Amino acid sequence: MRIRVPEVVCVVLVLSTVLAGAYVRSEQSGAAPPTVKANTTINISDHVYVILDDNVSFVPNVGIIVGDRSTLIVDTGMGIENAHTILAEARKLDDDNHLYIVSTHFHPEHALGEPGFPADATIVRSRAQQDDIDEFGPDTAERFKTFSPFNAELLEGLSYREADQVFEGETTLDLGGVEARVFWLGPTHTRGDTMVFIEDDEVLFAGDVVMNKKFVSFNSEYSSMDAWFESLDVLETLDIDQLVPSHGAIGDASLIGTNRTYLEAIRSQVVALKDAGRSMDEAAELAASRVEPEYPDWTGSLAGPARVAYEEAD
Asked: What is the pLDDT of residue 314?
């Protein structure tokens, strides 16, 4: 279900303010710029390696899945420098493999390292993610530049690469000795959130759809609470040993249930408040203030999910 643009624009503006504020604090505190760290790749299963974000803003957890013939990169970091770091780490694991590139969604820290990879790397996207790029990509990149001088430098002159493969719902990449299921389930954090499941290794790259100690963010006018629950329903059918969110610590399948629980709590609060005649802003603020304290070690806000729940409530 598509929700009203003005409400989501408000959510996006709030998110932009929060992200920009985080960068001001980072610069003032001397925190690291948004760069993927070299020589920190860890092996988490037979075929799967991860470069952790180290809790640095605008740095994703990067996946490197190595088969006998091909290597799949999940999320590219932001800009050429980050892409080259990831590429060097992948080449340490196999320097002859063909490269596939999949981004969990179109935001710059996940997809705008694409220009730094070799021209013969295969860019794979869901149709919905391509639609996000076509509709929002350039404007989003420009907005991200305003968040900090670091971002502006990393993103200067960059544009999204043309996709080599565009799929509708799901595609399977045969890497040689291991397969990667790449799939889209619906409009959640963005319209085109894409996940990668390495079934043989029982590893899921969940993007921003399932987070660990970071509340999920509804960041698009297409975001849907109903679609989010439907996505969680599907994920709960998978045999997952390790779940890699796009940001934050690696967890396990229990994170799916945790994310479901707080979203259900938000929705139930919002439905009751809407039935009582509260406005969207009032309901979102109250619902978030009641649920967030139950997760004291989680960051972010549930006000965005609350607004979407309000819009979809009967």
From this structure: 82
Please state, in angstroms and rounded to a whole number, the distance separating the CA atoms of residues 267 and 147. Answer: 31
Strand order in the sheet with 179-184: 170-174, 179-184, 194-198, 203-207, 242-245
Torsion-angle region of 186 (φ positive above 0: left; ψ -120 to 50: alpha; else: beta): left
What is residue 27's predicted lDDT score, i.e. its pLDDT?
40
Rounded distance between C-alpha atoms, residue 151 and residue 134, angstroms = 21
One-letter amino acid at 13 equals L
Closest CA to 235 of 219, 257, 217: 257
Asked whether residue 10 carries a pLDDT value surpassing 80, the answer given is: no
Q: According to the 3-state scheme, what is the secondary structure of the chain?
A: CCCCHHHHHHHHHHHHHHHHHHHHHHHHHCCCCCCCCCCCCEECCCCEEEECCCCCCCCCCEEEEECCCEEEEECCCCCHHHHHHHHHHHHHHCCCCEEEEECCCCCHHHHCCHHHCCCCCEEEEEHHHHHHHHHHHHHHHHHHHCCCHHHHHHHCCCCCCCCCEEECCEEEEECCCCEEEEEECCCCCCCCCEEEEECCCCEEEEECCCCCCECCCCCCCCCCHHHHHHHHHHHCCCCCCEEEECCCCCECCHHHHHHHHHHHHHHHHHHHHHHCCCCHHHHHHHHHHHHHHHCCCCECCCHHHHHHHHHHCC
The CATH fold of domain 5-312: Metallo-beta-lactamase; Chain A (3.60.15)
- The pTM score is 0.90
168-219: per-residue pLDDT in tens? 999 999 999 999 999 999 999 999 999 999 999 999 999 999 999 999 999 9
Q: Return the closest-CA partner of residue 264 out of 252, 274, 256.
A: 256
- The angle subtended at Cα 189 by Cα 304 and Cα 301, nearest 5°, is 30
